[in-house]
Amino acid sequence: MILITSASSDTYITNKIIDSTLMVSGNVGRAGTLDLFKLYDESSAITGSTELSRILIKFDLGKANLLASSSLNISDSTFSAKIKLSNLSTGKPVPNNFTVEVFPLAVSFSEGVGRDVISFADVDAANFVSSSVGTLWNTSGAYKSGTLGAASLDFYASGNLSDGDGLVNLGSRQTFQLGTEDLYVDVTKIVSATIAGQIADNGFRISFTDSQELDSVTRFVKRFASRHVTDQSIRPALLISYDDSVVDHHSSSFFDLTSSLSLYNLVRGEYRNFVSGSSLTQITGSNCLLVKFSTGSYTKYVTGSQLSYKSSPSGVYSASVAFFSSDTSTISGSTTIKSALLASGSITFDEVWTSLDQTVTFLSSSLKVDRTQGTTASSTNRKLRVSMLSTQTSIRKGENLKIRTAFYNDYEQNRSSKFAFEPSQLIVAECRIRLRNTITGKLLFDFTESGSLMSSDALSNYYTLYTDALPVGIPLGVEFEIAIDGEVLEIPVNSFKIVVSE
Fold first, then answer.
1. Domain enclosing residue 14, as ranges
2. Does the chain have fewer CB atoms within 10 Å around its N or its C terminus?
3. In a shared domain, residues 229 and 277
4. DSSP code of 309?
5. Are 95 and 199 members of one domain?
6. Do 293 and 350 meet the contact criterion of CB atoms below 8 Å apart?
7. Are residues 142 and 195 in the same domain?
8. What DSSP string describes 7-71?
9. How many CB atoms lie within 10 A of CB 300?
10. Could you say which DSSP state residue 419 is in?
């Protein structure tokens, strides 16, 4: 799962000197840029003065809060949250070798309607002295810091998040070597604590580090795109990532390897929990189902569990099973698992999912388990083809798009046959997805995000794409990364593009 959320408000506050006056009441809430700068002793009117700015930004966590009650596990090790601000190039010199800090705000702020970024003459809040109309910062410039829970603070520098780590630093940092980089900073601790209700959802304060604000160096100006910039693809974003992938090995089960098997209960287009008994008790929790594998006189039982904090928390179950090539259990007469496998290379088991007391059957199917075999080649000849099983390329903003894909080796077709030949799907160890703006070439998210891992079932690989903050009207290209035959390959799908509409 990757959820891109947009900024609900942003601005920057400054005490810049204009005509010998500190313009501390100036507001730029509707400006197209978020400027970060520091001027040391640059004013002839006030000797030794320091003029600086700090960015304030808040993101819409409504969808994340909603998903946290169902399919988003903020406590999982794969959960992450990163702020992305896009660099705006003006062709003028920019500061370099500086570090930016991000902290959670302790008080809320108003964006304001100011636009004047030349003389800062639009009076509104937030500004350098007030966070909103009638409410002053505890220290001008949103400068007063302290520990989470303390009163009369502007931002939280540290706090105890009740995770066993004690008092921790709540700040995140990024160093800009060239000064032209995007801001892409990890704020996982802050966002998870905010969704959990430990930190008030007031947004973030972004600034130079304390030492760089207090030194005798001028840094002018690092400029990011604001949420009011015309190009929506470079507006501020909070990228929330979580590995909610469900892996199924029904089509790729092998002896001496553990297989994860999934069971879906889809009723009238919705996932629903199985029920049992005259009272229709829902089948939920861990070890709530019994799975029986049998062939001849051989029987093996494992328990299945309802998936929690996955892409479909209701009506989706999973079980793990392993069969061993050395097993001498009898199938029939003198035939054992071991001898049958040596003779045929695979064994097909009857697969039955039932209630724990075996009075209700939920699925009767089969599972083919193959023997692993060596090869004399390090890889096979391949001519990869991607088949997009999803046909929907236009989606309304806020709706979810399920992307399905399968991979084939068309090299298998290069043989003579009087019958139509369809190659079998390739078994990929891992498949990841990323999204690219085809106009600018910039990635919306990359394969490196934990939430880019695709799920798989007996049909193919699939992925649910959240469109809430994707740019409208811009063709978005889908690309894949697959692990196969010991290699990792990147595969663009040039013919399949997604366009989000209002």
1. 2-241
2. C
3. no
4. S
5. yes
6. yes
7. yes
8. EEEEEEEE--EETTEE-TTB--TT-SEEEEEEEES--SSSTT-EEEEEEEEEE--HHHHHHHTTT
9. 16
10. S
Query: Do residues 350 and 267 both lie within one domain?
Result: yes
Q: What is the C-alpha to C-alpha distance for residues 192 and 110, in angstroms, rounded to an integer?
A: 23
CA angle 484, 489, 493 (to 5 degrees): 115
3-state SS, one letter per residue, for 91-129: CCCCCCCEEEEEEEECCCCCCCCCCCCCCCCCECCCCCC
What is the DSSP secondary-structure string of 238-282? EEEE--------TTSEETTS-EEEEEE-EETTEE---EETTTTEE
Q: Tell me: the pLDDT tens digits for 291-340?
A: 999 999 999 999 999 986 554 557 899 999 999 999 999 999 999 999 99
Question: Are 228 and 85 part of one and the same domain?
Answer: yes
- Domain total in the chain: 3
C-beta of residue 209 within 8 angstroms of C-beta of residue 65: no
Question: What are 323's two structure tokens?
Answer: 């069969």
Q: Report d(CA 481, CA 462) in Å as an integer.
A: 13
Tokens linked to 404: 């399905």
* Mean pLDDT of the residues in the chain: 93
**Structure-token pair, residue 269:** 């287009």
Q: What global pTM score does this model have? A: 0.90
477 and 445 in a common domain: yes
Strands 155-160 and 145-147: parallel
Let me know how long the chain is: 502
